[in-house]
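Hi R.,

Here are the chain sequences for the assembly we discussed:
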Amino acid sequence: MANTSEMMSGYRVLDLTNENGYLCGKILGDMGADVIKIENPRGDSGRKIGPFYQQVPDMEKSLYWYAYNLNKRGITLDVETEDGRQILSRLIKKADFLIESYPTGYLDKLGLSYAKIHEINPKIVMTSITPFGRTGPYKDYKGSDLVVMAMSGLMYITGDPDTAPLRISFPQAFLLASAHAAAASMIAHYYRETAGQGQHVDVSAQECALWEIANGIPLWQVNKILYKRAGSFLSGRWSDTKQRLLWRCKDGFVSFYILGGPSGIKTNQAISKWMAEKGEIPDYLKNYDWRTLDMLKQTQEMQDRLEKPIGEFFLRYTKAELYLESFKRGIMLYPVCNAHDIQENDQLKARKYWVNIEHSELGTTITYPGAFAKLSETPLTFKKRAPLIGEHNPEIYEQELGMSQSELSVLHQSGVI
Amino acid sequence: MDKKVFEGLKVLDFGWVIAGPMTLKYLADYGATVVNLESSQHPDLLRTSAPFKDNLPEIDNSGYFAYLAGNKYSVTLDLNQPKGFEIAKKLIAWADVVADSHRPGVLENWGFSYQELKKINPGVILIRNSNQGQTGPAAKQPGLGNHINGLAGIVNMVGWPGKEPISLQVAYSDYVVPHFAAAVLIGALDYRRRTGKGQELDISQLEVGLNLFAPKLINYPGVKVDESLKGNSCEYAAPHGIYRCKGDDRWCAVSVFTDEEWLVFCKAAGQLSWSKNPKFSTVINRKKNESQLNELVEAWTLQQTAEDVTKLLQKAGVAAGVVENTHDLCDDPQLKERECFWTAQHEILGNFTYLGQASRLSGTPAKLYRNAPRMGEHTEFVCREFLGMPQEEFDACLMEGVFI
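And here is the predicted structure of the full complex:
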């Protein structure tokens, strides 16, 4: 561990996850760990997930795979074979982390339980990511993103009151779980480095996703208020009065809401001033003293009277115009962005967020979202694109494990690697 | 005896609201000493957020604040008074980690830039959570997590095809940041353990949040991004949706991916005349006839409770689940058995439910060591015990109104 140029230099991660766990190893890789993605010789299941580069469905062109396997090396290995397990055991001896997202019991059946892995390497941190955790009545339940999101609270409160609950269409549950798994693995890592013992980290995606329901649990426990769907309004947080969150403008939508108390007053006053300057403010709002706004006492009728003219005002401008002016006036209003808007975001550009990574196999360079944190001493770096299938087999099997060409030839032809 | 991962680790939190304090929850729940520096002049937004005990919006009555603030100490201090400033400096010298989640510039205005902190405590780790980062033209723009939902594009991923997008009610990325921020903060602690070097961590909620949509943001010449709203559908699965069940506002999720799972679904659902229809026999056909399929599935789920549909399908091996509301979550047998929530008797809130940790560490489990603090509950304890302040000095400061 002599190399200290990166936060996690010198630590090795064996990444046995599928799409339910890629992000965990990616976070550790961004921090400088040596992450080896181990996939089935037929190619990892996540390689089938779109979107695809140039819209061509291909195991080597999944943007999902690209995005979440950056900063990893990749080898192929069939852990269901005895040879595969023996090779894995050799790798486990020298590894600091093992991350997996198989169904509970799968690795145990292969003779690769935590107890066995601990026996091979007592200092290893093993992290298991599953839909509901490794214990409890739902431990064997199947959990797709939709099902885990349904069972963790956010969906029930998202959507219109009279239609079905809605999910975020890009799958989130296992990304939340994987990010949490990275933090939890780091906690176990810290303990290993200070106390000398490894341990098993059991991550439940359901439990990770339920962080997203904000004050929903205490609202129920303390006041017996059930948080409900309210369309594009905020409900139940202060009183029965709903506050609009999403506003139509000339060419799209903006995020804005009338917030009471000291947090909201500057924005509220500035909106009135702006509307007055444009001569587009009704007398009621012009004469309204925002200091008297008390969300605990605000009735829906009072709220609607404030929101109506503001909504009409927003309709006259584009989201870019509204954001630019809000920016100047310190108003808490933000555009609802699509991917293109985000790519053009000046703030992200100024912070050099985007990173260009060469894909020599495609003869091109691709731009990715960059570091999730800016660190003064050990910056997160982007060294390599996601691995091709078996790309680093020679590096690992020949150079590191010292396996012979003939051995590798046997293993290749028998489908082990 | 409990093994605490972060036994002896000292953390001073200048921050507030969600993303910053929740990052430190990771440390507090595993045994670090986290001191939350507060001011009654500018109370934490969560302290003034519902629910309140007996619906009385008193400063110590917020269940929202308490839900996330277990295992922490609270000190009140007026940083604008010279003595308050001096005590803050002593706390900075005491701490291993200093945290900030105010708008960029606020910490500097108090005189606590990273450069200043290093003078007081050369090895300090300063972690700063903000909406859009400490640098750049938008760094100081005010905003809350609900606004970032728009800026990060999340809003554009919620809604029915052909309709308007629908906003989330929650500050989504506020609850995403802590995972990433805790990972990198612990990395910084380990790095310091090895090298003695501290550092400043600048974490932008927007930049973290985009990680959860990264494949849609990858850019290359000629890229085409699908921006259409998709409801609850999945491009390669059907049925894949939320279906109404028996009861008032009761729903279940069902997701069938492969033809094999479809056969299992049909068998589990029993004598459904339409299930053998070739229109639904393959994934291509099911996708082609998806809206009809969804109607038929819902006609079936409507006859039963969401719980029964879930049990039946899960027993057969199909991914299904109740769309749980917060009442369901509080009674969820899985969450109960795994002690996802922690309960304790709180002096103000009574029998109270805290958010626990979302994973179980086999050797060093997280736990609730102490209740969420009243504002300033530990001011005297921290000054006396952690800083070794003589009683007379503490009393004098108290009289002068330093601890407000």
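The longest helix of chain B spans residues 177-195. Residues 240-325 of chain B form a domain with the formyl-coa transferase, domain 3 fold (CATH 3.30.1540.10).

Let me know if anything looks off.

Best,
T.
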